[in-house]
User: What shape does this take?
Amino acid sequence: MTAETVTFSRGTLQAPFGLLTVVASHRGVRYITFEEDAHPKSYVDMDVRDDSEHPVVASALTQLGEYLAGDRTSFDLPLDLQGTEFQVDAWNALAKIPFGSTVSYAQQAASIGRPKATRAIGSANGRNPVVIVLPCHRVVGADGSLTGFGGGLHVKSWLLDLEKQKSAQA
Assistant: This one.
């Protein structure tokens, strides 16, 4: 039995805060990364081709553009998450945080049945491979303060402000 050879496609989107890159396989989005990422994702061992017309990449770019324009509050994309069971649980919990809301790391840990795993949640969120779609920007300190974010706190603040403004209009 041979291992499956997976080809990945990549496309980019200019966001108000910098370039976003989407990398996807035929299974779904593997990565969405910031131009200036505190936790850069490595594509070294991956066969990645520039192809913004790839169906998953094109859909992700469209939906991200709509979100950044304030026209979308949720995403409908297949994901190709690769991580430990704990990381995937933490990342899936992010998808359940409502648009325009925030939770603490402790609340996120409790939501996956691991109330004492606050630091591990922070670490998993720092390795979130699909930023914005899995909204780790909605996780804040226990006192409501903005804490660590791979794209920088200015980006986290920008995303939360966008959602706050859109929620206020609804």
